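QUALITY CONTROL LOG
STEP: pairwise intake check
CHECKER ROLE: data steward
CRITERIA: each record must contain a sequence immediately followed by its structure tokens, with no blank fields

ENTRY 1 OF 2
RESULT FIELD BELOW
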Amino acid sequence: MPEPAPPSGRSDAREGRRRLGLIGCGAFMIESISAVTLATHDMQRAVRFYRLLGFELLYGGETTAFTSFRAGTGFLNLISQPAERQRSWWGRVIFYHSDLDGLHARLVAAGCPPDTAPRDAEWGERFFHLTDPDGHELSFAWPLDSHKD
């Protein structure tokens, strides 16, 4: 017997969850990201870079194989990897920073110019991009006043 069509008004997303067996089985929404871990070939250089950005060092440091920084209510971790372990493009991490233009100016003054200048985006954030010494793409952003709740 064929499965009946979903009642009118049922969303495609809900129908997809139903077909995967996620409706009524206790599946919950992800609340937040706890941590992001990035690989580095040079822990000393990476730790100095992230401290320049303003991240608070919580664990590890320049001579350890694993380091953890505070990133708001979450964490940014670094893990040492051998030089022969290479990767291709993986994506971008976006951090909120309330003094976006000040951070950009501080990086330029420190001889670490970001990839882009701060600009206002149509989706309601001001942002700029930066590549860390290991090639990880980072964005720093802050909501524009006109888009705040």
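ENTRY 2 OF 2
RESULT FIELD BELOW
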Amino acid sequence: MRCAVVLLSVVVNIAAMAGTGLAAESAATSVGGSWVNGISCVPTSYHPDSGAITCAGSSIWQGAWTGVTTYEVQGVSDPKTGDLTGTITETFTGTYTADHSAGTLGFAESLRVDGATGAVRIEAEILRGAGDATFRCSAGHVTFDGFSPPGGLAAFGGWHGEWRHGCAAGASPTP
């Protein structure tokens, strides 16, 4: 009889964990804040015939995540309009202000800069996280909107998105 009670208790606890999401994917957290380029995108290659450009830089974030990033842009600029489109590989290093945990987040992003207005739009997918438990098993989507004056100096703006973080029971962090 005692064995049956223990077994029933285990089954009830597993069912309760499944109902609260502890055994499933972590819940999404709304995040947001502001950003400014700490180091403007420094060209590492440029092909004037095609407009293809590669550059590297750094940004500073404040808000739900506070810290710095390093990034590399691979894009194409249109010399007639000043428009820039491309992809960004970016790594954030810092803290989650809600619990003061520390870690890194890796992003794959698409970039669009309107040459006429300086409007910046970046759509970012969170690919991975590392560090304290809060950052592990990270995924989600973040949108960055901002302004980049002519020459790309001192670009700045805001960001908002949904972040799924912390490993679910039995899950292991993405390498």
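INTAKE CHECK: passed for both entries
DESCRIPTIVE NOTE, ENTRY 2: Residues 95 and 102 are 4 Å apart (CA to CA).
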